[in-house]
């Protein structure tokens, strides 16, 4: 890194696409200082890879997020939300209705991911799971290392107890993923790909790991075991904390705005009227417009990923003629873009009507970038939005959510957290869960 420029994010992003120039992945690759601590864990998965490898993998993985694959996951999201809600009801009946949303929801999103990625049920919301504990530990250790400048060099870091913990947790996570890959490989050649797909289609769920095993590039080449592991581990990491942050903050915002909370609840009740069991389905995703507006406004005010960075490998000319010189690292503040008062009047006010279809027409699509933008945007955004809608809808159907005792303080780490957790009160509503 030769120099760092904190450039007005919106300016650089808007400039890049506004003039029809693609914010090409090749010209502005990710700045690895930002992510390098995760390399031993996530390897060359999509989040961290670059160049041709990234392009090839992105093309190969895009079908994994096709709605045909995602559709059956809705059942999984309903199931993991049910487990969490049953736990909340039990805790409330034992006298604790004051809950740290991050703690509960992260476990739930990890539970969902482990089922969607590996087809594996670890029961992690009810009993400790070594694998899930290792992922939580890895995420916490990476965030902690960012704060300790002396430990940024690998040599020193791996001499410390934290560095050794990081190594151990990495090993455990890799062993789990490797074991699933080997087990799947054993079943694949016997059955042949077509038989396998047919059998899977009958059970209606194709795990991500199956898609990774089956996908081929333009030359008919498949991914290596190492590549598959990196991609699966990347989904587990990138998919859990981000979605948990999004859900925790939307519950916070709705706790602070009971009028919007009630309106969402009515929308869900209306949708599920006369339906038994009360389960959210794929086709419902477009039937919850107000709830969707509430999620989007929350992602604006509290974006899970607050900043991303890019390194300019060539001079980049902005539409007004100014140049970002080659070698400069740009920090792109998603949080700053979402709080820009010239685009978002009263930016600190939570107002879901900003996302009313009538109100979005005049706004640049780059004013709202919780999932980033351009070719390196979030590949999992539909997965994430679907999970958030299912879980939020069921939560509001079954619980009233109220603010905690203290106002949370935002704490940007790898994702946007709250200092000491995000504590809210939950009150079960009479009719649920069934
Ligand atoms: C609310 C939830 C989520 C948010 C806000 C979010 C946000 C983001 C952002 C901002 C990026 C760009 C990162 C960068 O440029 O450095 C990204 C990339 C990525 N996300 Fe997400 N994400 C979410 C959920 C998910 C889920 C559920 C998955 C997978 C199951 C996922 C997988 C990925 C991957 C693989 C990348 C790297 C894509 C690439 O570089 O080609 N994300 N995400």
UniProtKB/TrEMBL annotation:
Q: Which metal ions or organic cofactors does this protein require, according to UniProt?
A: heme
Is Heme found in the keyword set? Answer: yes
Compartments, record wording: Endoplasmic reticulum membrane
Provide the binding site for heme: 378
GO molecular function (one): iron ion binding
Enumerate the Pfam families for this protein: p450 (PF00067)
Q: Which UniProt keywords apply?
A: Endoplasmic reticulum, Heme, Iron, Membrane, Metal-binding, Monooxygenase, Oxidoreductase
Domain of life here? Answer: Eukaryota
Output the Gene3D superfamilies linked to this UniProt entry.
Cytochrome P450 (1.10.630.10)
GO terms for cellular component: endoplasmic reticulum membrane
Cite the PANTHER family for this sequence: CYTOCHROME P450 4F3, CYTOCHROME P450 FAMILY 4
User: Of which family is this protein a member?
Assistant: Belongs to the cytochrome P450 family.
Q: Per its record, how is this protein called by name?
A: Cytochrome P450 4F3 isoform X1
| Name of the coding gene | LOC101691709
């Amino acid at each position: 890194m030769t120099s760092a420029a904190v450039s007005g994010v919106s300016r650089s992003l808007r400039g890049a696409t506004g003039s029809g120039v693609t914010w090409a992945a090749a010209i502005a690759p990710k700045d690895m200082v930002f992510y390098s601590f995760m390399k031993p864990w996530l390897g060359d998965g999509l989040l961290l890879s670059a160049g041709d490898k990234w392009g090839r993998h992105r093309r190969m993985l895009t079908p994994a997020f096709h709605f045909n694959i995602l559709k059956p996951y809705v059942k999984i999201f309903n199931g993991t939300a049910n487990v969490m809600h049953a736990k909340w009801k039990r805790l409330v009946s034992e006298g604790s209705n004051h809950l740290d949303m991050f703690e509960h929801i992260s476990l739930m999103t990890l539970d969902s991911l482990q089922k969607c990625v590996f087809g594996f049920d670890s029961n992690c919301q009810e009993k400790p799971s070594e694998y899930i504990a290792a992922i939580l530990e890895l995420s916490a250790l990476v965030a902690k290392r960012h704060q300790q400048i002396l430990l940024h060099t690998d040599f020193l870091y791996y001499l410390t107890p934290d560095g050794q913990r990081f190594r151990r947790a990495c090993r455990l996570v890799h062993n789990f993923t490797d074991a699933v890959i080997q087990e799947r490989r054993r079943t694949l050649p016997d059955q042949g790909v077509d038989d396998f797909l047919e059998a899977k289609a009958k059970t209606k769920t194709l795990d991500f790991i199956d898609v990774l095993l089956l996908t081929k590039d333009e030359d008919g080449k498949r991914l290596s075991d190492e590549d598959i592991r990196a991609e699966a581990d990347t989904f587990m990491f990138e998919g859990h904390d981000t979605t948990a942050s999004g859900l925790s903050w939307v519950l916070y915002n709705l706790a602070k705005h009971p009028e919007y909370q009630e309106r969402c609840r009515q929308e869900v009740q209306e949708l599920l009227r006369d339906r038994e069991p009360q389960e959210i389905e794929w086709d419902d995703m477009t039937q919850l417009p107000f709830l969707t507006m509430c999620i989007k406004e929350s992602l604006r005010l509290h974006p899970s990923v607050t900043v991303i960075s890019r390194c300019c490998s060539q001079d980049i000319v902005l539409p007004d003629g100014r140049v970002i010189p080659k070698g400069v690292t740009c920090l792109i503040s998603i949080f700053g873009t979402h709080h820009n008062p010239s685009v978002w009047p009263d930016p600190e006010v939570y107002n879901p009507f900003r996302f009313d279809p009538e109100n979005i027409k005049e706004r640049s699509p780059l004013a709202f970038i919780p999932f980033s933008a351009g070719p390196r945007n979030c590949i999992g955004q539909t997965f994430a939005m679907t999970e958030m809608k299912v879980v939020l809808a069921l939560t509001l159907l079954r619980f009233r959510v109220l603010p905690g005792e203290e106002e949370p303080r935002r704490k940007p780490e790898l994702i946007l957290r709250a200092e000491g957790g995000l504590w809210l009160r939950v009150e079960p509503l009479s009719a649920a869960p069934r």
